[in-house]
Amino acid sequence: MTAPDAAGLHRRTQDLLAAHPPATTGRTEFLKARFDAGLAWVHYPAGLGGLDVPRSLQPVVDAELAAAGAPDNDPRRIGIGLGMAAPTVLGFGTDEQKQRFLRPLWVGEEVWCQLFSEPGAGSDLAALGTRAVRDGEDWVVDGQKVWTSSAHLARWAILIARTDPDLPKHRGISYFICDMTDPGVEVRPLRQITGEAEFNEVFLTGVRIPDSRRLGPVGEGWKVAQTTLMNERVSIGGARVPREGGMIGPVARTWRERPELRTHDLHQRLLTLWVEAEVARLTGTRLRQQLVAGQPGPEGSGMKLAFARLNQEISGLEVELLGEEGMLYSDWTMRRPELVDFTGRDAGYRYLRSKGNSIEGGTSEVLLNIVAERVLGLPAEPRNDKDVPWKDLAR
Fold first, then answer.
1. Is the N or the C terminus of the chain less surrounded, counting Cβ atoms within 10 Å?
2. How do strand 156-162 and strand 112-115 relate by DSSP bridges?
3. pLDDT digits (tens, 9 = 90+) for 250-261
């Protein structure tokens, strides 16, 4: 059977809308029908929400459904599942795992989180100490994870744990899917500088994970995790946004609407950041086009670097532009939000929240090394711990 082209996708989309009119079809029912029609992520395999066609054809479907008033799957709420868990399950999961997890993930029935970072293994993620010990057909997991977005909402987590401490740190790690509702999983909020508890710390005590929920071979979890991390950086730094989307939008609107706040110096800085934001947006578009040919590469690290720096500089300019108003902070209420809303809050929130952009999804320092070594081809920094068994490393 020949894969559909743009015209074929148009016909399929119209057939979906005719069979499931958005005005009279429940949101979840419509999303399930869209997935089953192969119109969820068209570049995925047939039967898994796609049609084996180029990723570049997805906008054909998205535009027609948006024009018809069809619901989306609220991608900001399920971003970890869409951007990190799904490509990893697709790349390393068994047929049974793909069938079980991808549909409810895309529809948004099941939220995912990421159990990677630890108190002693953040920038140096491969130094992680959470242990998974084989017990029959199960693995028993003990340890602590931290900075876990959406853990308070999640049903499933992608988890890496050490299964062989006698091997060097990058080996002897395995990759699992953890049920966040299982006994022994404890989620505690971490209140941030914004007042919210968007992040969490997660304690795992005797958590039993069936071997059937392992992704990839035993001991090769670092390789699997690289797929997750590269997709994470693309999803953070290379998200599709319109011109003046993201953080540059609010400050540009304030500049146009509040001429009394303008100064020559602020004007020059705003022009510079506007151009840099536009360059980053267009570079993200090019990066997404490159993804059509295969898996994301280290270029996503460069995009994530730019995202963090620009967010922090733009939000700082906005606070300065607003003067005394920029010092106000509207709501310090302790709450556990479902998503991060940069543009829906005030300037003070944007300024404070952007401080985390250079830490989450890989610290800027680590990403600079990745760009230097894997993009620019510069010599790697000396590392004397790569061949030392993990159990012998100083901690």
1. N
2. parallel
3. 999 999 999 999
